[in-house]
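<backbone_tokenisation>
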Amino acid sequence: MSELSAEVRVQVARLKNLLIDVARCGALGSPLGALPHTELDPMEVQAIWWLKAESLLPVNILAERLGGIAPPRLSRLLDRLEAAQLVQRERSVRHDRRRVRVRLTEQGRALAEQADSVVQERMARLLMPLEGEQRSALMDLLEGWVEALGGKNRAPELAAEEGDADAPVADALEPAAAPRRTRAELIAITANAA
């Protein structure tokens, strides 16, 4: 951290203190934590939520989304979700049968919708203390932050999601960015959650 300018060091300290204050308010916990799905562990709920958010994910990308869990642990998690008929695995490319993608089943989508409703309600409670213009400014700042972090283009993944099993899939080493939302979509999501 010694390479950073004094201004950046001050901002890092402010961010750290703000995150501590947010945690003290009880708002830093995962919106996916303690969801009302007693038959699933939290990591399984997160996997289902990510698959709802991105529709179809290569196994290695799903592992990244879940915090970089090890392949054996992910395999066991997917085995449990498949046995519960919540997800299905499929080969992604005919020429490379090692590439596997995961998608939700209808039952998995229904469960993901329930989880997403709870998440949206929790997020709405976090945003409600702010006035409309403040919420909008926060969303603009967060969108700019995501862009600055270098969100990647998902075009190859989206082509594969639309049914072309032979469409190119994102490179195994490159994580796909979360789907882009317009400002109007974010406002609608927030309004629906409230």
In short: The chain has a mean pLDDT of 76. The two ends are 41 Å apart (CA to CA).
